[in-house]
Amino acid sequence: MFGGSLHEYSEEEEDLGKIYDNVLMRRLIAYLRPYVFEVTLIVLLTLISTAIRLVSPYLTKIAIDDYIVPKQLEGFRVIAFYLLFLLAVEFLFSYLETYRLQMMGQRIMRDFRMQIFTHLQRVDMNFFDQNPVGRLMTRVMGDVSALNELYTHGIITIVANLLSIGGIMFMMLWINWQLALVTFVVLPIILVMTTVYQIYSRRAFRDQRKFRAQINAFLQESIVGMTTMQLFTREHRSFEKFGEHNLKYLNSSIRSVFYFSVFFPMIEITGSLATAVIIWYGGGQIIQNTLSFGALVAFLQYAQRLFWPIRELSEKYTIFQRAMASSERVFDLLDTQPIIKDSAYPKQLQTVNSSIEFQNVSFAYREDDYVLNDVSFRIEPGEKVAIVGATGSGKTTLINLLCRFYDIEKGQILIDGLDIQQMKLDSLRKRIGIVQQDIFLFTGTIESNINLSNTSIQPDQVVAASKEVYLDPFVQNMPNGYGSEVKEGGSGLSVGQKQLVAFARALAFDPDILILDEATSSVDTETEYLIQDALSRLMSNRTFIAIAHRLSTIQNVDKILVMHRGRVHEMGSHNQLLQKRGLYYRLYQLQYKDQKI
Amino acid sequence: MLIGPMILKYVVDDLNQGRDQITREKVLLYALLILGVALVGGVFRFGQRRLIGGVARRIEYELRGDFFKHLQKMQKSYFDQMDTGDLMSRATNDLDAVHRLLGFAIIFIADATVFFGFALVIMLRIDVTLTMLALIPYPILAVLVQLISKNLHNNFERIQEGFSKMNTKVQENLSGVRVVRAYTLEQSEIEEFDRQNLNFVSLNQVFIRLEAIFFPIFRLLPGIGAIVLLWLGGLHVMQGKIMLGDFVAFNAYLSMLIRPVIMLGFIVNRFAQGTASIDRINLILNHKPEICDEEGVDEKITELNGEIEFRHLTFAYSNSSPVLKDINLKIDSGSTVAIVGATGAGKTTLVDLIPRIYQPERGSVFIDGIDTRNIPLKTLRASIGMVQQESFLFSDLLKNNIAYGADSATETEIEVAARNAGLLSQIDEFPNQFDTHVGERGKTLSGGQRQRTAIARAIMSPPKILILDDAFASVDTHTEDTILGRLKQLGNCTTILISHRISTVKAADQIVVLHDGRIVEVGTHQDLVSQNGIYANIHQKQLLKEEIESL
Q1: Any alpha helices (H) in B74-136, and if so which ranges?
Q2: Is B428 on the interface with A (CB under 8 A)?
Q3: Strand locations in B362-411, DSSP E?
Q4: Half-sphere exposure of A429 toward its Cβ, with a 13 Å CA cutoff?
Q5: Does any domain span residue A50?
Q6: Which of B55, B186, B203 to probe the A interface (max A CBs under 10 A)?
Q7: What are phi and psi of B14, to 5 degrees?
Q8: B333-391 pLDDT per residue, tens
Q9: Are B230 and A63 in contact (CB under 8 A)?
Q10: Checking DSSP bridges between strand A513-517 and strand A432-435, what pairing results, if any?
């Protein structure tokens, strides 16, 4: 969670500034389109509940002027009843309004999340090389929440606030325009005060956030680097440095406490100023008989209600700012187009022999930094091939290219004579089963990790596959069998068991071509035997390619491809290559010879 | 603040009693009085908020400092068990909860009691029955707020759970992207994610429904009180039981009570959160550090010579089987010892015990014949220069990283250290030379640059004992030779080398082969090669590897 926090914080800092951007806003508004009905309803509800809130002070005025002061009992009850009714209606409507609005926000967030997630399923693999998982997570989860604010507390609330302000001002003017105008003198004061407060407190708040981020970054770094710090006996110095950050944060916090302590009493004083003005001028009007009591009381109530929406409005600034920054990042992500996609006229394979051919393939992950150089070889249908070579010789890249995780620029890769770039991506990958070196297990059950939640694979197929690779006895010993829970990353399972789960998975999908990137980590001898046996079952009846780390694997394949510095250095059977006493002979001595069995 | 409505009462009564009772001047006086009272009240409120808010922040500041200071004393094994994220969240979220409790909660509790007390007394004096009736909704409100916010809280936890499930899904999907693509699971992943999304929306529905009731209730219940007041109070005015001014003042007081009541409801929950957070912080602060200067430490030891001896050293990480078994080894001052062995043989553990990163048993590790547990930690560690396997660099300038352990280092001293670590010859590869920012954990540097920076840092102030734990893994053999040659000239310094490369260890005075936590072979390169054991085998393989690389 805190990994790379420094980066995240600094990224956020840079983005402060813009509060409105036409292009972004237009795109953001477009997300409201499916909810036109909801929006209309919400606006309607808001209108009504705002109107009701305007009426009740007026009813109070009537109650005082027409009933209480002239001591008129008749009809007084009706007024009270009206008030009660309006109160109930207002309660209901504001409930509905809040509920609908928030739910719409949730649905829009879902739309956003789904759109981003779906998009991430299509982007190229090299996108993930450039964008760490943590950053992408922030897009899908964090930025989307910031956008929710815009929809639920931004656009519509602004409309509601403006409506309230307008309505109250209208009512005041309508009851007594002279008194209203005098009272409005307070408005610029409130406006100026809130704006000034917003500016200062926002600045203080930004400082606070910055210093806090610094403290957090420093603290985190210190925790991770604690041993280094202790080894160099830097405790004292590093505490001083921490103290500096801490003090900066304290000072900025106290500054913001100060603004807060000044502002709220000021607002209260201004409220009293409004009361005083109303009493002074209104009192005078009462003496002259141009104003009634009820009107005075109603005015006092209206004046207090006028302050709220003004204050709320001034808080929208931050919401907009954050939404703009987040939406920019989100749209940036959505705008990256995948390069690897189905060709316009995909061709269907007629045969299912699964021969594989690399023709003069060269490839570089980064420009001109070639990992593969003019690689050509052919694997016959049903042939078993092992790829060996030192680290960095290009073994894994061969597999990445065959699965079309990356596209090549030079050369061709053919399956049964058809260029893989002309095949449908789906149909290509469905023909290939792959068991990776670091086996990835999903949170779920043993079963869901074998059938990968693919409902077309029946439970008995799962069991059959497990039996085939000797996973079944392990699973039977688990408390819930195939329903046993698998935790994130497959913790709780041994390395060997994870390997067998991956085998069962590959087998359940029954691919034409099976690719195995063998794990280097060693397992105990017993499991090693199981894996070997399972492996021989796995490779029968299909084309098989392994990046081999096991002696038994290289001994059991038909052909060995020796990679060296991005080229195919030697090719042949185990015995042929040994006799040749070339690179393979040495690799064998180095990596395989000592393996027992 | 509370006097305001009283003035209002006199204004209204005067205005009501007849035109002759009141003059424009009197009205103006009342108006000014209201404003004056508000001003005085405002000043006090400002003082109160500033004081309490400031104190709360200061306490938070002290606590954070204590927290950091405490962590500095904790040993590595403690951090091995603790999750960094957990420690961070205690230092941030929990501290926040504490300052909120101290700040807001106290302000509002004070406000609420004063307001409630005063207003109640005044209202009761105006009209007892009216007060009772008008106040009926308030206790209900307080209880409701408490109840709903508790419910909201519980619901919120469920929502958090749903959120973290989605989070996990996204994270798994992105980390496992190769499996997803290889098995063409994109569609089913999208469907699964949408299921969780929908579930999340419906979890939120309950929360939103509660929340949507929550806020209107603040208007509904006091509103009912106000209507009761209007109705009964109106009647009382008509019957002449109370004055119209009383009625207006009463109204004003009633509206003043809304906020404190709401706050009271909130604070109950905040209180629980704050105290829980204090407990969580205390749990950390009460954990005693294990590795520190104990009784028996000889404070007079301020310098060491660098002769190391392990006597029957057996070591296990907490509760697991021993990693080192009966290690006996003497390293002469100024000599070079190389340690080789397979991964997991115990090499790093052995060297970590020298500066007491982990705690060795008493009587098992000696320097200059003194048990390391009797040497002041500061002296011990200051005499040792160590380059760890994964050397940690701080996100700072390159020069500050090199001079990390030295209090006042001159540019020339830094340059010398950099030259000896083989860094100076490539300094131009850094965009701003010594002023280059290395980034978080030194991520802008290459592995080899990081290692050489760490070496420079370790030799910045010439140590008596230099420990190089696999410090050359990312450096090519040629550079390694040069660096080792320079280090040799550093003076009388005991050097311990861990390496996988025979070329590195060849020249050592003593080579120690660790296997499964035991010393299995000791001797010079020649001795060990002729023994034809583990070392000889490693040696042979290394030759093969070189051969392959040269092809």
Answers
A1: 76-81, 84-89, 95-100, 106-126, 128-135
A2: no
A3: 365-367, 370-371, 384-387
A4: 21
A5: yes
A6: B186
A7: -60, -45
A8: 888 898 888 777 788 888 888 888 888 888 888 888 888 888 888 888 888 888 888 77
A9: yes
A10: parallel
Residues A190 and A63 in one domain: no
- Nearest 5°: phi and psi at B392? -95, 120
Whether A222 and B71 lie within 8 Å, measured CB to CB: yes
Q: Does A293 contact B30 at a Cβ distance shorter than 8 Å?
A: no
Q: Which residues contact B282 (CB under 8 A, 6 or more apart)?
A: none
A94, A168: one domain: yes
Q: Which domain holds residue A12?
A: 1-175+315-339
Q: pLDDT (tens digit, 9 = 90+) per residue, A325-363?
A: 888 888 988 888 888 777 777 777 666 677 888 999 998
Residues A37 and A170 grouped into a single domain: yes
ipTM of the complex: 0.80
Nearest C-alpha in A relative to B442: A221
Q: What letter would DSSP give residue A406?
A: S
> Start-end ranges of CATH 1.20.1560.10 in chain B?
4-127+242-285
Domain count for chain A: 3
Amino acid letter for position A440: F
Q: Which residues of B are less than 8 Å from A583 in CB distance? A: 548, 551
* C-beta atoms surrounding A181 within 10 Å: 12
Q: Which of residues 359-378 of B touch A (CB under 8 A)?
A: 377-378
Pairing relationship of beta strands A432-435 and A418-419 according to DSSP bridges: unpaired
Domain B306-383+465-483+493-551 CATH (choose: 1.10.10.10, 3.40.50.150, 3.40.50.300, 3.40.720.10): 3.40.50.300
Contact B45 A264 (CB under 8 A): yes
Same structural domain, A193 and A131: no
Contacts of B357 in chain A (CB under 8 A): 227, 230-231
CA dist., res. B242 & res. B230, Å (int)? 13
- Residues A52 and A160 occupy one common structural domain: yes
Give Cα A226 to chain centroid, integer Å: 31
H helices of B469-533, in order, are: 477-488, 502-505, 525-531
Say if residue A414's pLDDT is above 60: yes
Per CATH, the homologous superfamily of domain B4-127+242-285 is ABC transporter type 1, transmembrane domain (1.20.1560.10)
DSSP 8-state secondary structure symbol assigned to residue A34: G
Could you give the residue range(s) of every CATH 3.40.50.300 domain in chain B? Answer: 306-383+465-483+493-551, 390-462
Residue A396 confidence (pLDDT) above 80 = yes
Structure tokens at A315: 């808080």
Is residue A262 located within the same domain as residue A391?
no
Does A267 lie at the interface with B, CB-CB under 8 angstroms? no
Question: Tokens for B234?
Answer: 């109106």
Written as six digits, the tokens of A160 are 């509601």
Within this chain, do residues A142 and A274 fall inside the same structural domain, yes or no?
no
Nearest CA in chain A to B72: A235
B390-462 belongs to CATH 3.90.1150.10:
no
Choose from A231, A452, A569 for mutation: most chain B CBs within 10 A. Answer: A231
Residue A5 pLDDT > 80: no
In this structure, the answer to whether residues A100 and A164 fall within a common structural domain is: yes
Q: Is the pLDDT of residue A8 over 70?
A: no
Q: Answer positive or negative: Cα dihedral of A580, A586, A592, A594.
A: positive
Q: Could you tell me if B288 lies within 8 Å of chain A, comparing CB atoms?
A: no
Q: Is A345 inside a domain boundary? A: no
